[in-house]
Amino acid sequence: MSLEMRTDTETSDKSKSNIWKYFTKERGQDNKITAKCNYCNAKYVVVKGAITNLWTHIKKIHVSLFGLSTTQRTLEQYDLPFTIVEGWLKWILKKVTGGFHLVSADTIRCDIIQYHIDIRITIQKILKETLGKLSLSLDIWTSTVVKSYMGITVHFIDNSWKLQQITLDFIELEGSHTGKNIAEELITVLNLYGISKKINSITTNNASNNDTMFSYLELWAKDNDIDFSENNQQCRCFAHVVNLAVQAALKELKPEIDKIRNLIVKSRSSSQRRKKFSEISKLNGVDDLLPILDVPTR
């Protein structure tokens, strides 16, 4: 699903028709026209077709709807630090361009945070207006610097009968990965998007802490009058189940597999061994490919 906001080239177009992309026109019993913001539900009375106050609201409260600036998009695309616009770079650009104004790192930081907030409001609106149930998938990943993160994705059929999926959050997990801690992080996200009562299923792997998480979620749901049960809502990842079955079967071939793994490790750990392996492959009419070490969890 595309959640892209308006680009810089569109900001100058302030026709009366365009403002209604951001507001919904409502007519009250007194025949007065009211404009309701599609992103925060703020309301303004429209007098004689005047829309200046509507544009003021959008530019002040939802400025990121006009898109990121070229500088902001560059920082985002190339994963550059915000502070790159400070110091020597600012001095060089000023000298080269003769007075070019470069926004500060703090401004860029604030703009991107606001952009994130506006995107979240858009997602909240989409999920609220979706008539059907929502399904979630979540997984925990550990980085090379031993930091743990949990990704949460929502899957659903929209009102046009198209399959959609949106990443709701990517959370750094603090503390141990107990089922209770995972459940509490998930509950925070559910409440943030207002979808606690719309969950059809949650897909996870077969880790024991996920079973504990579902037990905790069931207790939480019961306390909050939410229709949710561990037996009905838990969906185990099919690929993970198949992998467990394959790993169990491969235990019967452990001696042979260990020899192959040792060969791969040794051939990849030395350029001389790699060259020798290549020569042997060519002599035996085998494609000269670099052996790949398998990953049991994949």
TrEMBL record:
InterPro entries: Znf_BED, ZnF_BED_domain_contain
Lineage top rank: taxon: Eukaryota
Main location (coarse class): nucleus
SMART domains recorded: ZnF_BED
Keywords: Metal-binding, Nucleus, Transcription, Transcription regulation, Zinc, Zinc-finger
Subcellular location(s) of the protein: Nucleus
Example of a GO MF term: DNA binding
Location of the BED-type domain: 14-62
Annotated Gene Ontology cellular component terms: nucleus
PANTHER family found in the cross-reference section: ZINC FINGER BED DOMAIN-CONTAINING PROTEIN 39, ZINC FINGER BED DOMAIN-CONTAINING PROTEIN 4
Protein name: BED-type domain-containing protein
